Amino acid sequence: MRDPVAEQYDSYPYPARNPQEERSRLVDGSPSNLKEIDNYIFGGARDFTRPFRALVAGGGTGDGLILLAQHLADRGCPAEVIYLDLSAASRRIAEARAAARGLANIRFHTGSLLDLPDLRLGRFDYIDCCGVLHHLADPAAGLVALKSVMAPDGGMGLMLYGALGRTGVYEAQAMLKMLDAGAGLPARIELAKRLMGQLPQTNWLARNAAIGDYKRGEDAAIVDLLLHARDRAYDVEEIDLLVRGSGLEIVSFIDPWRYDPDNYLSDARLKALLAPLAPLARARFAELLAGNIKSHVCYVVAAGRAEAALARPSEPSAIPIVRHDDGPGLARAIKGDRIAFRIDGLEVAFALPRMAAPMLGHIDGRRSLAALQAELSGPFGARASPGAFASDFAQLYKVMNGIGRMMIRKGPPS
User: Which of the residues 113, 222, 294, 381 has an alpha carbon 20 to 30 A from that of 197?
Assistant: First the structure.
């Protein structure tokens, strides 16, 4: 009997993607941005002139696949990216997207990640598994299968649904099951659209600013969110248990700022009470406090390796890099001494140090921290002295890394 999840994605591939749009945009996100991979798995020190093998397990219509393969091609890395998915329809879309970009570093396979130990695909430096484990009947077995083909010094980027941020989704799914009279999926989609148009303003899904795909009325989005054949959601502690049960450990949740309660609180007494908590407990508190984390992205490595896997801006030779190579653009986004944005219904503003704008304006992915400090010491004098520079950069990095805009690379540029 065929897997119902595979049947669903063969009929309604998600997310819907038009391969022709590859000519005008590259869909970015997390996990699988190559700068993130280096920062959170290889300590910022991976030499991408060496061969690199990656697996995109449950590649779907190809967002993570195309992002990673394009980044590796842009680096000139001798890489091989393996795509694996059960859905033939999703694979065709991913193949068309790769062809539109002329990417020659991808091999496509149709199959289940549960069969990885027997597929003889070799070991992988990096594994992307985004939005897949929570659709398996046994997510733990899926993660164990992935771990079996991960290189000992490699790692994974995972995405799993967030329980609190999906408040209203499962209640809506329950209502639709009550309305289901054995009709086929097209009829159930029509019922779902009717119900979404009748939600009172008090309904949990209607009130959830983090969930909005269904509002566009796209059939694939309706099916994926409200009529899915199988899905479950996790909180921070459940993800940690899942990961540790597979012999892995979390390096960091992405974006880090969302998992730090200090970013939501202004009360000094509350912050002091939370300060002694372990990072995982602080992340769980932040999840409960924010309430809008609809999906958890994290980078994981073999147990015992997390400390070494994370790049840290602690050495003068460290090279700060900006996600989209747009340091001057980020500098222009600073209003006064703050940078602000909106995510999933939450308005956020972060205070920045005095030297933030000139620092960002000089970051080009080649200059080390020592070189940046030396260049800024002339025009900014005492403000750019070693101590002042180090203090300002630490504050800048905490904010910019926290919002996923800045990472660290060690050694010569690649």
Answer: 294
Rounded to whole angstroms, the Cα distance separating 107 from 330 reads: 36
Residue 48, CA distances (Å) to 21, 72, 310 in order: 28, 8, 17
Beta carbons of 156 and 129 less than 8 angstroms apart: yes
381 Cβ contact partners less than 8 Å away, ≥ 6 residues apart: none
Q: In the numeric block, which tokens belong to residue 351?
A: 């205070």
Helix-then-strand count for the chain, H and E = 18, 11
> Is 413 a residue whose pLDDT tops 60?
no
Cα Rg of the chain (Å, integer): 22
Average pLDDT score over residue span 110-133: 96
**pLDDT of the residue at 335:** 85
Pairing assessment for the beta strands 150-161 and 295-302 based on DSSP bridges: antiparallel
Secondary structure of residue 125 in the 3-state scheme? strand
User: What residues contact residue 347 under an 8 Å CB cut-off, 6+ apart?
Assistant: 340
SS3 content of the chain, % helix, strand, coil (to 5): 45, 20, 35
Cβ–Cβ under 8 Å, residues 292 and 210: yes
pLDDT tens per residue, range 33-68: 999 999 999 999 999 999 999 999 999 999 999 999
DSSP sequence for 189-228? HHHHHHHHTT--TTSHHHH-TT--GGGG--HHHHHHHHS-
3-7, 118-122, 235-239, range with the lowest pLDDT = 3-7
Q: What is the mean pLDDT of residues 60-85?
A: 98
Tell whether the model's pLDDT for residue 275 goes beyond 90. yes
Amino acid at 399: V
Strands 346-351 and 338-343: antiparallel
Name the band, by pLDDT with cuts 50, 70 and 90, for residue 414.
very low
* Strand-pair category, 319-322 with 248-254: unpaired
Tell me the C-alpha distance between 48 and 291, whole Å. Answer: 38
Planar angle of CA 71, 358, 340, nearest 5 degrees = 70
Q: Is 260 helix (H, G, I), strand (E, B) or coil?
A: coil
